[in-house]
Amino acid sequence: MSKxxxxxxxxxxxxxxxxxxxxxxxxxxxxxxFEAEKIYIRDKQINGxxxxxxxxxxxxxxxxxxxMAEIYKKMTAADIIVLxxxxxxxxxxxxxxxxxxxxxxxxxxxxNKVFYLISAGAAPTKDYMKTMQICFEQxxxxxxxxxxxxxGSVFGLSADRSGAVSGSDEERQAYELGKNMR
Length: 182
Fold this sequence. Notes:
The chain is α/β, with parallel strands linked by helices and about 180 residues long. The protein contains five helices and five strands.
């Protein structure tokens, strides 16, 4: 049975650089025989976390009734979760940050997943991506008790215009990362 990949795309723009990198990742994964789904967070109604912690007392069920309920199910069913977000002020887009905050409900239940990070930004070097990488690693660390791990990351650099990553080394890296998952 093939592994299931869930790409959570946190860019407010479809077909932007982060989206192009995630498509390259998915192309490689498809060629390797993986089953995949991409969700555009911008198309979902996801409210901010209320910080009530009820989800921590009732087995991970959030009291809010919005599109996160569907995403919780898809995250649980996936073997591999790809967080695809442009870098905004050194970290997640607001769309992705809202989803990550709401995944607090899954802290006790999300188990045996491999996480990947795909990101793009206008910064010319990886030095500017350190905060994003640290945020990603610390996010996954919240779920370490469940046997979750990091699979890898790709950063599209100097992506200051639409399509900047097309044909880039980073696009090839994203493809290879998807193709070489196990």
